[in-house]
Design goal:
The structure holds 2 protein chains of 2 kinds. Chain A is mainly alpha-helical. Helix content of chain A is 70%, strand content 0%. By secondary structure, chain B is an alpha/beta fold. In chain B, helix 7 crosses helix 9 and helix 9 packs across helix 16. Classes of the chains: A mainly alpha, B alpha/beta.
Chain lengths: 323, 422
Amino acid sequence: MPVDEAMPSVRPAPAGRTDGTPPRQRVPRDRAAPRGGRRAERLAPYVLLAPALLILLLLRFWPLLLGVNFSFTGDGDRDGLMVGFDNYLELFRDPLFRGALRNVGLLVLLLPVAVAIPGLLATFIYLRVPGHRLYRSVYFFPAVLSPVIVGAIFNLLLAFDGPFNALLGGVGLGPVDWLGDPDVAMFVVVGVHIWATFGMALVVFLAGFATLDASLLDAARVDGASLPQTIRHVIVPSLSRTIQFVFVTTMIGMLTSMFGLLYVMTSGGPEGSTYLPEYYIWFQQGQLNRPALASAASTVLFLIMLVVGLLQISLLRRAVREA
Amino acid sequence: MKQRTVWSAVLVATLALAGCGSAGGSRSSPGGSEGKLVVWDWKSGEPTAAAYLQKAKADFARKHPDVTVEFVAQPFEQYYTLLGTAIQAGKGPDVMLFNGGGQIRDRADALLPLDDYLAEDRQRLTGWEAFTKDGKTYAGPVTLQGHPIYYNRTLYEKAGLDPANPATTWPQFVANCATLTKQTGAKCLALGNKEGFGIQFFLSAFGTGVFTPQEQDDWIAGKRDWTSPHVKRIFALWKETQDAKLNSDGANSTAMFNDSFAIFQSAKAAHVIGLMSDVGHWKDFSEFVTAEKLGVMRAPVVVPGAVPNLPFDGGIGYGVAKWTKDPKVAADLVRSLTSTDALKSFYADAGAIAADTTIDVSQGGPAVTTIVADLKTGKPALHVALSSKTLDLMGRLSQQLLSGSVSVDEAVKQLAASDQAG
């Protein structure tokens, strides 16, 4: 196709020539263009979008639709039969699923801790504590480890007769069944998840620090501000957008990426105390052969993520407006 | 924001109104291809199964030289998840390996009844019940799975106990445990209950010391009286072993496979309820507890009238998918996989007690000889009769019983409700 014929609809209108020569004979050629050509021009953007839309419809929307679809059918003897909201009623009557939802709430409550740890450490690195370069590498290192490896390492460390309890014994404290006590296990798994993932949040914080106005810190120093005062009155306000971003991404990570750790460290136990919706879905589908019930649980998780996503968008928009 | 919320609500409403179809999928789609059989299992990747498979393949090739067989070894942890997905897609393998009991019964509607094809093997092999549902057989048994109580003879000797005469009653067993711990520092029972499997083994192994033979038969036949004092006694016994500190420490955070077996092998515990096939069995232990030092005992009598015996069922077996193109050929492959010659190799290399009990095991040592002798009077394992859902609940309740957060009465009540719901 000649270059001057390409995408005529998006080219600026001819402004005429400045050398006094008449413009080229475009008008007759436009007149000669068939009606179909204009239609093709109108359709062109849609044709260009079609592959992406098809991929989205086939690989995203359709599986989602199927999943929701299956959640209204039965399992086992009732396979393929419409059962209305039976699966949802069973889900909310199941103490295990209710426990999994409670654990989602617990994760949200523990979120400030998961954000504060990388935030504080990034602050120390930015303020150049001795050995800050080493710390930066060490803190980031677990982010490149698979959750399975991390889980296996902590299984050894936290075993009842493992080194952690040996240390406790050394200082005269009794052993703790870190992964076998239902009141403790979920906090331990979340703690390990934070340990394994805060490196990425730390990098985001350091990127945020790169945009921080150093003169503000100098001014604070000149005014005799202490470290806590500097953090509270200079660093936190300057990094508010970064903090909110880390808040949101950490929340999503905690809700969707803990399966590997749970599988390796506790298998949902003890007493079902470390179940999360993802683990519940996997267990119902794979181990108990209940795909329809698992689909219902997936739909509930999808709705939770939808709400979280909408809150996230709202939070980010507000942050941008306030900035 | 408002527009986004509206769109989200529209999306959810559309999805919610779309109900039709089946999560289990259509199971009529054909799988495999002409002249080829695909087999899924979790054993064919193991070196100890190499000779077994070689013999089975050779046997099948003699009968069907024009059919190719492809074995696909799947990781065991993910096996039933992957298989479930394949079954739902209706495009799974032609032949597949199963554990006996709930795992195969839950998926029987995707399998072909094999009674007509395997009729000739009925007498030679044992353990069929674990692969049977509603009177139809869905797999040919390869191994037997049971739950012998193994003990460490060396620890008995160190404690001044007679290794040839382990306890036959519960009070005697508890007394021996106290002596063992006092004299050797070892705990009595190596228990791993992280996944909630410990209670299954305990129910089947020690349950035979509580139930009368009639109660065992009724339980297996589905006539389970959860209000019976003997049922409660088994769960109370489970709790007592913990309260009396007979179990290894941190049971709820110790995995059975392979941590609790490692505790037994390293002589940190004197007894373990183990297996007969796959892992956690006599051959697995032999690196540290040699054949001569490994004892096998029946459950001690807890309630007078009980007749302790070896709980066992069919262990693993191969079934045929409903959608296979030529069921006769696929069933012939199952017959080759359960042939005497192949099973001999499986016993010799992997140590599994084969479903063909005519195989000579005299070279395996005293523990194996005892186990095989006990097969004559053994009864099906009590836990295998329960559904996967009830077993899962029992696992969680067993952890609650150990930690004291649920009473025996409450646990039994919940189990009864789950069992009756089916």
